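Please produce the structure of this protein holding iron/sulfur cluster.
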Amino acid sequence: MKKQYIIPIFVPHLGCPNDCIFCNQKAISGQKKNITKEEAKKIIEDYLKNIKEDAQIEIAFYGGSFTAIDEKLQDELLEVAYYFVKNGQVESIRISTRPDCIDKKTLKRLKKYKVKTIELGVQSANNYILERANRGHTFEDVKKASKMIRWNGFKLGHQMMVGLPDSTRIDEINTAKALIKLKPKMVRIYPVLVVKNTKLEKEYLEGTYEPLPLVQAVETCKELVRMFADKKIEIIRIGLQNTEEISDPENKESEVVAGPYHPAFRQLVESGMWYDAIVGKIKKLNVKVKEVQVTVNPIDANNVIGHKKENVIKLKETYDVDLILKQDENIKQGKSKIDITKIYNDFLEDEKEKIAK
Ligand code: SF4
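Below is the modeled complex.
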């Protein structure tokens, strides 16, 4: 299978008619000024120069609300991207936008330039929470836009948030349920971070908004991932990408003021899920387990062990169980073989033998 590359082009806040409570797109994308077609062309050419292998390459217009920007500029940017699709250097184009910025005319334009994927910023399925976050659209807009996107043959993506003001775990589970019904091919899950110069920062400083603790954000994301994975919906991102601006709030350069930030947020979620699976297996047995061997695909090895060996340490400290990791290319990614390799009686026998010697 060819390696996949994404050439990201940020269109920060360009044309976005809104001012969501949590958003400071210019800070998040690290790009302070708007983009021109010449700059877009240069970004693509620079990336292409560095991709040496035969790969599957996609140009992605991220940030802002692509289909809300001036039509002339949309055409110019898409034309630049489409040029590379036509000459075979790039395979596809992806854009992200707001649900209320999708209509027939817009989809026709995106089709003309062979855009393949459209990602919608949904954030919540609860209209009260959308209003509280100053999203400026309702969940009915999401439903309408999602259907139009799919019916017109595009790949549909959704983005949702965890920890918005007044949102509870149940609201987030309900959002995932509502999204699943709309049949996206992929989702992104973003725990809310308090970013500088946003309305949310003001609320945080005034004490009217309290961000989710990291542990709670991870727990909710684990549940969401399970729900989407069960329906074979690809989870393309969990947590904002770690950049100079999106980094530890302790860091001077960081634009993040507070919230469940972690440089390896996705790993915390995925390794937490492996931990639950291992503990679940141990708890089902009617014996005191002393050692468990988990065989997985090498791709999953780090997640089984956990961030900074967290799973190994937690299993030992909580259950006095040793975790042995075995890697096997023949096991499918995400699947595992969990064997109990030592129970407490074996351990006692071993100890007795040692003493006898
Ligand atoms: S719609 Fe998107 S770009 Fe516009 S303010 Fe909200 S989050 Fe930011």
